[in-house]
Amino acid sequence: MSVEQTAPPQGPAHVAIIMDGNGRWAQMRGRPRLFGHHAGARRVREMVEACPALGVKYLTIFAFSTENWKRTQTEVAGLMTLFRRYIVREARDLLARGVRVRFIGDRIRLDEKLVTLMDELELMTSGNDRVHLTIALNYGGRDEVTRAARRLAYEIEMGRLTHRDVDAETLARFLDTHVLPDPDLVIRTSGEARISNFLLWQSAYAEYEFVDTLWPDFTAAEFGRIVRAYAARDRRFGTVRA
Ligand code: FPP
Q: Which of the listed residues 37, 43, 82 should we mutate to test ligand 1's pocket, taking the one with most ligand atoms within 8 A of CB?
């Protein structure tokens, strides 16, 4: 592609966020960790609201990982209650704001009542298209790829596919994210530079941004600065500069 043909810098259409630092934020205030998670939940709304003006069509957030079950029973139960309340409290507003909500992750270990609320919210917002909010709940990248491989193996066992059909495109059709584009930008808060099993397959060519801010302190203004800075980056997807 010549310089003249190069498209103008574009913002990320899909941003994924690892919302880290709730526990430390609460502990710094001498409060229980769940206090931080509640403060973190309030930030979610702010980021969703910021998306349209920033040109972000897809926002994917890491709410609970397959490893988070190892936390204390009090914290896990508190988080599950928070997710249920979040859905009940925010559903109407999300619907009115044109947000389409999806959940990714394995639902098998989740409480039946929570799964029903998740299903209802997905159905209720399925006609929306302004912002696509995907919430990763009991999600792990390796777990997702493993589940996809298992389903693919089943299709082969049933004779509906053969081993020759197994390529990256076919496998991706079995991922939880099969209807979503890959993330362009992954942000992690709280100063940790790890991806923690988040969207492993999908982030193969994503840009990463690690910021020191703890999630409950992360503002729409900081989000906007990161999104705008992304447009200046040179993404080559393994090719060379034109
Ligand atoms: C990581 O912080 C955060 C989590 C494991 C939970 C993320 C959940 C929320 C932001 C709550 C709400 C989300 C929704 C969708 C309602 P941490 O506890 O690991 O923090 P630490 O590293 O400081 O201990």
A: 37
Q: What is the pLDDT of residues 159-213, one digit of tens each?
A: 999 999 999 999 999 999 999 999 999 999 999 999 999 999 999 999 999 999 9
For the chain, how many structural domains are there in total? 1
Domain of 45, CATH number, reads: 3.40.1180.10
Residue 10 confidence (pLDDT): 86
Q: Which domain holds residue 105?
A: 14-140+182-230
Rounded distance between C-alpha atoms, residue 145 and residue 177, angstroms:
11
Total-model pTM? 0.94
- Reported as a single tens digit per residue, the pLDDT across 77-112 is 999 999 999 999 999 999 999 999 999 999 999 999
In a domain, 177, yes or no: no
Asked whether 21 lines ligand 1 (CB < 6 A), one says yes
Any domain includes 160: no
Helix (H) or strand (E) holding 95: helix 73-96
What is the Cα–Cα distance from 108 to 89, expressed in whole angstroms? Answer: 24
DSSP calls for 121-148: HHHHTTT--SEEEEEEEEE-HHHHHHHH
Choosing from 20, 143, 176, 184, which is the catalytic residue? Answer: 20
